[in-house]
Amino acid sequence: MKNKHIFSHVFSLLTIFALCAMLLAGSCSRADFEKAKKKQPALSDSYPHDTGLEKDPDVLYVEKFDDGMENILSRYSDVLNSEGMSVDTDVPKGSLGPNSIKITNKGGVNSGGHLFKSFDGGFDGTIYIRYYVKYPSSSNGYIHHEGIWLGGYNPSTSWPNPRAGTCGLGDSRISIAYEPVEEPAMDTYLYWGDMRSWTDDNSSCYGNDMVNGSPTAQNLEWDEWMCIEVMVKLNNPVTAYNGELRVWQNGVEVGYWGPGFPNGHWLKDSWFNDPGDPPFEGFRWRTDANLKINNIWIEFYDDASPANVSHHVKYDHLVIARKYIGPLKK
User: Fold this and answer.
1) Per residue in 71-127, pLDDT tens?
2) Which of 67, 86, 89, 114 lies in disulfide reach of 71, CB 3.0 to 4.6 Å?
3) Which residues make Cβ contacts (< 8 Å) with residue 307, sequence separation at least 6?
């Protein structure tokens, strides 16, 4: 049995080496190569329940919402509507708890709230963010923006400044989210210098969506904890279009975009995956090395609730790291 395992391991290595040669020769795509690789190891495999995960050298930030609202709020530079925030004993499976955070709104009074954190110096290279989110079915039809955004401002700020509707803005802004876009569809919501406009005259831009046509696209799961993970590989400002984006929902990859993969086309501000089309050009997230990932925005924005009607969202087990994190392990 031991020899069988050794043979299997050697065979896998030889297969990957052969695929590398094919990739270099141009006979297979980057996407084919990625699919053939073994499943990406997860940091969470080594830390059941996320216990001790914050001590891993590849982990940059952890928020479990377990030490009380006063301590939670103290970690964020900009807090909106703290009165509508509370800790909740509802936690994802695999969590030892005791709490998640619940953010609410009140129709006619406010549109929800947020927590914003800026990281001194920012992060370059490849960054992963993983978190759990729970959308109540009572919010069906009222969701506007409810997700955790990973971003960068140049220069850095201690508060959110999304400038919705404004195209491009060059090297001053990156905003990356994966959230309900058209219920129940989940998709990306991206702002960056090369973003596309939904208007023919390029006069107005809102977050670009990328998952359309993906064979593994996922829907929102009402009243269930969902594990969301996003990987951003910042491009080399000189090499330009070698940036990447990768998204998982409950451990299932729903999309991976980079230089030369996947095939598809742009239709205004939406990318549609289609194997019969040319390959994706890759992301030119920036041309200035000073634009880095330097903030997170924990957001609940519901501006459509009727007067005096409240809705909410819950978040838990937020982790930022330099390696794939993966869902909670029991």
Assistant:
1) 999 999 999 999 999 999 999 999 999 999 999 999 999 999 999 999 999 999 999
2) 67
3) 107, 108
Residues 250 and 133 sit within 8 Å (Cβ to Cβ): no
- pLDDT score, position 30: 54
- The predicted structure's pLDDT at residue 19: 42
Mean pLDDT over 274-302 rounds to 97
CA distance linking residue 59 with residue 208, whole number of Å: 28
Rounded average pLDDT over 254-271: 97
The whole-angstrom separation of Cα 270 and Cα 256 is 15
Tokens of 291: 């634009």
Q: Give the number of C-alpha atoms closer than 13 A to the C-alpha of residue 152, restricted to the C-beta side.
A: 25
Dihedrals phi, psi of 85, to nearest 5 degrees: -110, 145
The yes-or-no verdict on residue 27 having pLDDT over 80 is no
What is the tens place of the pLDDT at every residue in 123-149? 999 999 999 999 999 999 999 999 999
Give the C-alpha distances (Å, rounded to integers) separating 172 from 9, 167, 190, 232, 234: 46, 11, 14, 17, 14
Tokens at residue 204, please? 């107005």
